[in-house]
Write a structure and sequence with these properties.
Blueprint lengths: L2 E2 L2 E7 L8 E8 L2 E9 L4 H5 L7 E5 L2 E2 L5 H9 L6 E7 L4 E9 L5 E9 L2 H12 L6 H9 L10 E2 L2 E3 L30 E4 L6 E4 L35 H18 L5 H18 L6 H13 L14 E4 L6 H16 L7 E4 L11 E2 L9 E3 L5 E3 L4 H9 L14 E4 L6 E3 L8 E3 L14 E3 L3 E2 L3 E4 L2 E3 L4 E2 L2 E2 H9 L7 H7 L11 H19 L4 E2 L1 H19 L6 H4 L23 E3 L4 H4 L9 H6 L11 H21 L2 E7 L4 H13 L4 E6 L13 E7 L11 H11 L14 H4 L3 H17 L6 E8 L8 H12 L3 E2 L4 E4 L4 H20 L7 H6 L13 E5 L8 H9 L4 E10 L9 E7 L13 E4 L5 H10 L10 E11 L2 E8 L8 H8 L8 H8 L8 H11 L2 H11 L3 H7 L7 H7 L6 E4 L10 E7 L2 E3 H4 L3 E3 L1 H8 L5 E7 ...
Parallel strand pairs: 14-15, 27-28, 30-31, 30-32, 32-33, 33-34, 33-35, 47-48, 47-50, 48-49, 50-51
Antiparallel strand pairs: 1-2, 2-7, 3-4, 5-6, 5-7, 8-9, 9-11, 10-11, 12-13, 15-26, 16-19, 17-18, 19-20, 21-22, 23-26, 24-25, 24-29, 36-40, 37-38, 37-46, 38-43, 39-42, 39-46, 40-41, 44-45
The protein binds flavin-adenine dinucleotide and flavin mononucleotide.
Function: Produces nitric oxide (NO) which is a messenger molecule with diverse functions.
Pfam families: FAD_binding_1 (PF00667), Flavodoxin_1 (PF00258), NAD_binding_1 (PF00175), NO_synthase (PF02898), PDZ (PF00595)
Catalytic activity: 2 L-arginine + 3 NADPH + 4 O2 + H(+) = 2 L-citrulline + 2 nitric oxide + 3 NADP(+) + 4 H2O
Length: 1332
Amino acid sequence: MEEQQNLIVVRMVKREVDGLGLSAKRRTAAGHSAVVIEEVIRGGPADQTGMVQPGDTIVAVNGQDTESLSYQEATKVIGDIEPGKQVELVLRGPKWFHTYLETVRLSSGETRTVRVTRPNGPIGALTLLIQRMRGNTFDKRAIRRLENRGDIPLYSRGVANGDVIKSIPNGTIANGCPVTGHRASTVGPSATRRPVRLKNWLNERRIHDNLHAKANDVNPCSDGKCLGPLMRPRPFTAPGYFRPKEEVLEQAEKFIFEYYASLKRSDVADRDRRWRDVQVQIEEKGVYHLTYGELTYAAKMSWRNSPRCIGRIQWSKLQLFDARDVTTARGMFEAICRHVKWCTNGGNIRSAITVFPPRTDGRHDYKVWNGQFLKYAAYQLPDGSILGDPINLEFTEVCQALGWKGEGTRFDLLPLVLSANGEDPEWFDIPRDIVMEVNITHPKYDWFEELGIKWYCVPAVSNMLFDCGGLEFTAAPFSGWYMGTEVGRDLCDANRLNITEAVGKRMGLDVARNSSLWKDAVFVEVNIAVLHSFQRNNVTIMDHHTASESFMKHLENEQRLRGGCPSDWVWIVPPMSASLTEVFHQEMANYHVRPSFEYQEDAWLVHLWRKKPKHPVLLKFAYDENPPRRCSLKEVALAVTFAASLMKMALNERVKTTILYATETGKSESFASLHFGIFKHAFDAKMMCMDDYDITHLEKEELVIVVTSTFGNGDPPDNGEAFGQALLHMRHPPGSDGKKRSGSVRRVSSISKASYRRQQKLLRQLRDGGALGNVRYGVFALGSRAYPHFCAFGHAIDTLFEELGAERIHPVGEGDELCGQEESFRAWAKGAFKFACERYDVGHDVNMEEANASLLGSDFSWAPGKFRIVQTKGLPETDVLEGLSKLHRRTLVSSTVISRTQLQAPESGRQTCLVELETHGAQELKYVPGDHVAIFPANEDRLVQAILDRLEKGTNPDAVILIEALQEKKSASGLVKTWTSHNRLPPCSLRTALSRYLDVTTPPSPQLLLYLAMHTCTRTSSRERAELEALGKGGARYEDWKFEAAPTLPEVLQDYPSLQVPPALLLSQLPVLQQRYYSISSSPHMYPGQIHATVAVVKYRTRGGKGPEHSGVCSNWLNTININESVPCFIRTAKNFHLPEDPSLPVLMVGPGTGIAPLRSFWQQRQVDIKDGTTSRHPPGDMTLGVRLYTVQTGPHLQGETTQARRDGALTDIHTALSREPGTTKTYVQDIIRQQIPRKVLDLVLRDGGHVYVCGDVTMATDVCETIQRILVEHGGMSRARAEDFINTMKDNNRYHEDIFGVTLKTHEVENEARKRGMSLLVTSDDEDTSL
Ligand SMILES: Cc1cc2nc3c(=O)[nH]c(=O)nc-3n(C[C@H](O)[C@H](O)[C@H](O)COP(=O)(O)OP(=O)(O)OC[C@H]3O[C@@H](n4cnc5c(N)ncnc54)[C@H](O)[C@@H]3O)c2cc1C
Ligand SMILES: Cc1cc2nc3c(=O)[nH]c(=O)nc-3n(C[C@H](O)[C@H](O)[C@H](O)COP(=O)(O)O)c2cc1C
């Protein structure tokens, strides 16, 4: 070994296996490329000399000058040397240093030749300074940048007197991470690394990891401590940070060379051309464009290099979605939807990554704010407990602060929050129909289902940074499939759903003693349930044993293919039965190799807001780029805590108000949210569906506002039933007075006024000591006076609250669908808010006008210039099914019409059709006889065209558009207005919106008429504006107009020819077209994969039969839609209308007209059961059918079917009431029951425990019920009251079933009657309103 000026000569022997034990790279300088040593492999020949360092330039090899050669020629010279031969390298030490050899005497007395590298100029000195400061206070990133520059040497092993001496024996690195050898104070990233021996303690097999030699210096470990187990061990970059050009160049070069080396037919010329191209791009823009092939390779390698992933055996099967052309948050949203759909694949999950544009300057980043695409929200409840997945509490707050409103359930999917190009974030609800979730059930424990747990099927990590080739992709979400224990932990971890104790108790385990290992037993069963549920639903999932085996196989592959596999033992070993899996016994080496996925700070903590957020939650988290002065961490922490506590105190001081709603068609929910809007002004309000409310919290509430409709025939909506029952249970605890109580909530409301008064004394007593003694409340009930039990459920709730001792703050409100429902609601809500403020002495500072305005849903109320339509360039129209799913926030499925049969002869003058739909095996469309199918129709083309013809010109009706709303925000600099997307409708054409999403046939509401009035042309007609304004005031005039003409929107446009309606008005203000329900008319066993509906086609003339003909939207659509056309739908379970479990019980079915629909499914089911022998043990009981048919006109279809059913033994008796038969008097089903089969009915209900099913319109159902009561009185000797009670008990015990279609027959008469009653009340409520 010799030494000249900054040159040293080093000799070694080339080895068979690792050659010289170094890797080289090219550096271009002064017009020629030099061969520079990049890495020295620990234990290799170069390392063993102790003289070779990364950064040295190879000047000559065995006497041949390599500096005059090209890079390829120079490396070829070294490559051509035969193993076993002596090699002499002349090396030039790093720039800015003086390198030479020196003989030193050690303290042992020995002499040794060592290499000395002494700083030679300011940069060298600086480097040394850095060297001393490393690991202490110096900015590590700055060091890394310096280190990564190839011309600055990195030192290893020992510092003496300012010189760096390489003289410590090989392999003895003290206090560093044992694998990478990282030792923050002395060892650099490219320190020589020798193979790490890794042992498998089960089979004693040993492997050597060499790959770690390529590891980057981003290991967090430092002297004396290993930080591997930290969740996020690597430091984050500060907001606004971006890589310096040199760093990008260096990593790009490495990547491009690696990529070309990976290609089977790699061509050096190609590679060099590409590299030149990349260099030019980086020089110009600081970044460059990866080809699709490069990006795919990088994405796969990132997965392959992820030390924490156990499922990497699949790394080469990753689908890349290249979304680098996306520029907006909406574009990101659409790309993500495509990703989710593709990955879900009906449960056969596939792995994918979507890559959005890379970071350019740190200020235009693309980010997915969600940690995963799919996550459940978390809501803090008044008692401090959390509803939902607690891990997402902070993010849920952020979403809410951005304007998202969850449904308040335990499994509310959070929206996607996306920021594109550094813009402020936007949120998007994920369409329900693309999200697959699995209800968690257990193969052995049936009760598991009652826990009501579900989980989503695609785990998609969306907030990591994808680091490849020097580029940083800040949004590159990727997804795979679950390992069972991941979901198991989500359910059981104490900071997650934490169901461990609940399950333990249900399992009957001793949860008081740790030593019973109950937690372990629970965890196993929960994991069994998870695997079982996913598998049962054909969703890909892997158990941890199989995952462990696959990982061992992967390790073996990787050892063979690239000499190692970075693996984080802490994460790879499953959280359950760890030592039973082989990975537990396998030593692993954890290090960091690029391309890679990196953790990023939560987006809401580092986002550089374009517009300073207003919301306190966002402000609390917002990153301040220019803090007024630097505070210590402690100060910052204190300040944050203080601000948060102030906020909390302010909120805590407010009275907590819980707004509960129950709804069938959504009106109560939207009224509840208006309530929420007004109460927010002075109360700490929250809103949730009754079904999601934990009734045990009720006693601790301060103020409860209930908004609910009534359904069926005086019954609660489905999602209010459990709440109603629970209240009833509270009021009448079982066995409290020795009597068995009726379970009917409805009946609570039917107490007479006299008995109500009699109860007052008792109520006052109860109030003082009742369970809800500390609660105040108000109820607004929605209903329709067309029904005998008007607003019954709302009244029942009101009564129960009062009986339980709660104090009513405002008399129960009633909103009649037939007459001024919205107005009644607004009047009531204003009153309730005012009285609540008075009662609690709050809201003195509230601007009542502003608060009341919120009842108009002011944010999105109409004003000219407030909305605009924008064309979406190139954006495709959202598929209707997807659009409807988003709009209705539920999973809709497409079925197809396969046939349609007219059931009535043409002369009948009416139409009823049997529509048969194909479900294509969709799981979501499985049903049992008695269930309903909800259908989403389209408006008639004729009506849509009539509207389009009358709209303001300028918008192409077939171009894809979006609506934007101008939002005003107060800021320090005044009022700021911005156009934000109004996410009401998906991207679609005007025609599609009017045809599929919006209701154009329901008479416009008073509010809409007022908006229309603004767009009459006063020059041509001031009368029209005045008229519309008068109608827009609501009240009697409006109700008369609506009742007489029931005008559709096209008719209004026709009646007011001066109207010039802006399309944005309709798109933003028309109500949403609702689904229609149909009782399913088929048995799934007789017609697998089909749904049949028996549909009465609605047509009527307004103005007492003299007006234009109106056609019901859905029934006419179903009657005219082409075969094979798609019908969006979902199934609604009608659990109170299913056949009795015991088939031997006799059954009476009454279904006049289309009421026959569900009954057909019953007899068909029984036909199948008889044929299959299912009923052989219990011979089927009598099945009597009572129908009303127009025998002369009725087509043969149904008659043939009922005759066959009778032959098969399914139907015992069929009784037909004749209606509209020429020359006969009309008979009704109730006449048949009373006249022909009274004894049979008596025996069936009284003696044989039989079931009664009544289906059709509400008037008929009421008549049938009264007829059966009469039979009990006349033939059963009961009193009227007893008979009524008897039928009610039958209903409570699920023996008397009603399937009510609403008011379908005699609509006009019934409405007229009801209206008369309603109008007088409306007048009263108008008066009440003005007194406020
Ligand atoms: C649980 C359930 C099950 C049902 N099952 C069936 C079934 O199996 N088969 C079936 O055919 N239907 C069934 N229906 C009724 C069905 O859902 C629809 O209401 C019906 O098909 C009409 O819908 P449409 O869209 O055609 O009419 P719409 O466009 O909804 O028009 C109907 C509306 O028009 C108005 N109207 C009707 N007649 C007059 C009149 N003479 N004067 C003034 N206004 C009038 C009323 O406001 C009425 O609500 C069921 C309903 C429910 C709730
Ligand atoms: C099938 C059906 C049954 C109904 N039954 C009743 C009833 O028994 N009593 C009542 O007051 N209203 C009844 N209604 C009217 C609803 O309560 C009314 O439409 C209400 O506005 C719906 O509110 P929601 O959208 O919140 O469910 C019924 C409506 C339908 C369609």
